[in-house]
Amino acid sequence: MNVLIVYAHPNPLSFNQSILKVVHNCFKDKGASVRLKDLYAERFDPVLGEAQLSLQNEGKIPDDIKREQEQVTWADTIVVIYPLWWFDRPAILKGWFDRVFTNGFAFSFDENGVTGLLKGKRAIVVVTAGGTKEDFGKNADQLTKSTTEGTLAFCGITDIADRVFYSVPIVDDEARKKMLKELEVLVEQF
How confident is the model at residue 6 (pLDDT cuts 50, 70, 90)? Predict the structure, then answer.
């Protein structure tokens, strides 16, 4: 199994870093080959600018994006870890999807509509939130949708597990340990 972890949190001391370690170690323990994309540490440029868009429209992909796409192609499982900011992903992660999951690589359009080109891959999406589940009310079940449905499923990935951990900054260490145990079970069963 080839696992690509795409991690988007700027603070190396955050709880997301603990999540990253658990996911990495669980997959390694299962015998998987694991690669990490730490978008902040790599200083990934999330801006899809005019130059790249023009090249894409000509069917050309910049070398840096080709390398990113090679990582996605290599992986049969993609794990995405990020904090919830304004009911969505951090901009750096959104920009990574914008620049890497291009037309012709991750999906295609034709007269019959959209075809996802990443079929056969699996994904896990892990999100941390500052509020309680009750704080999000009826929207609580929508918090991962932009990633799970709006991006991954659109691109043909249909075997997707997702988990939101709530109240991360305000719960005690025992509650965080329970979250990490829950994550271990999720990865083990995936």
Answer: very high
Average pLDDT over residues 14-26: 97
Query: What is the pTM (predicted TM-score) of this model?
Result: 0.96
Q: How many domains does the chain have?
A: 1
Strands (E), 8-76: 33-38
Residue of 74, 142, 62, 150 lying closest to 99 (CA atoms): 62
Looking at residue 130, which CATH number applies to its domain? Answer: 3.40.50.360
Instruction: Give the structural domain span for 127.
Output: 2-189
Q: Could you read off the pLDDT of 108-132 as tens digits, one per residue?
A: 999 989 999 999 999 999 999 999 9
How many CA atoms lie less than 13 Å away from 57 in the CB half-sphere?
7
Tokens 């999330």, located at residue: 46
Amino acid making up residue 179: M
